[in-house]
Amino acid sequence: MSSTNHNTWLVTGANSGLGLSIALAALRAGNRVLATARGVERAAKEHPEVEKLGGQWLELDVTSSKTEQIVAEAVSATDGRLDVVVNNADFMHLTSLEDARIEDITRMLDTHVIGAIRVTKGVLPTMRAQESGVIVNMSSFSGFIGHAGCGLYSMSKFALEGISEVWAAELGPFGIRVVLLEPGAFRTLLVKKVKADTVTRSEIGVHYLETDVGKTIQITEDLADNPEKLVAGDPSKLAERVMEIVDVTGHAKETRDVLRFPLGKDSLHIIEGKLRKLQSDFEATKALAQSTDYDAHVGGGAGDL
């Protein structure tokens, strides 16, 4: 698949941040793009370059029960073909898990997990019929390692990573490829949105204020007020890498069978650290794990239960 062959893309959350950068990169590469947003009039006004490049806005709230139908109908209206879907609809809410409100937990899961399932269910019949397609799921390094204060975000991204592994196994026989992006910090407006959507420090239990939970929130607030301090990745470069990942070209030319793609030096560093810890823990528990098997001389087994 080549993004220069006028493929059709659908990008959720394309009205800002990494979603917007990916949609624009796909358009500049000559593709047809359905760019979704919850408020398309505002999105079109703020980002006229999308339509100037030939993109089409699609009103879509991935938490709606009508998402699957809306997506399927939109794909049918584009000559019934869809080559790439980017599940990017995203937001972050910082708090301790203990202080998290059930409605915030539900909203996080509905956006990042169930929303991605709804969108993908809407495109899979088309991809199966054409025996090709790429599903790009936007995770995060927080989907690989949990951080204090980011529990809701990590919870939902961990779930998306598990779903991506299952989809890779289930959809591979139909010629459909699954890609999981794990970006670190990129210079987008997300940090300001996080501040606006985060519970205030006064709503967090006093016992958490001086822990890493409070520190995470304080750092985020400081960066939102002083964005020049944010040393992070370039969204346009991430979008370029996504084009290469989809096409298996450039930096990604040897990655056709790769599922997870860390993006950004910070993501790479954090993921490497956890991999080392996982390997260390694995080695430390080998004997313990093996000690739970039946002894060879003892009769019976699971079939006797």
From TrEMBL:
<comment type="similarity">
    <text>Belongs to the short-chain dehydrogenases/reductases (SDR) family.</text>
</comment>
<keyword id="KW-0521">NADP</keyword>
<dbReference type="InterPro" id="IPR020904">
    <property type="entry name" value="Sc_DH/Rdtase_CS"/>
</dbReference>
<dbReference type="InterPro" id="IPR036291">
    <property type="entry name" value="NAD(P)-bd_dom_sf"/>
</dbReference>
<dbReference type="GO" id="GO:0016491">
    <property type="term" value="F:oxidoreductase activity"/>
</dbReference>
<dbReference type="Pfam" id="PF00106">
    <property type="entry name" value="adh_short"/>
</dbReference>
<keyword id="KW-0560">Oxidoreductase</keyword>
<dbReference type="InterPro" id="IPR002347">
    <property type="entry name" value="SDR_fam"/>
</dbReference>
<dbReference type="InterPro" id="IPR051911">
    <property type="entry name" value="SDR_oxidoreductase"/>
</dbReference>
<protein>
    <submittedName>
        <fullName>Uncharacterized protein</fullName>
    </submittedName>
</protein>
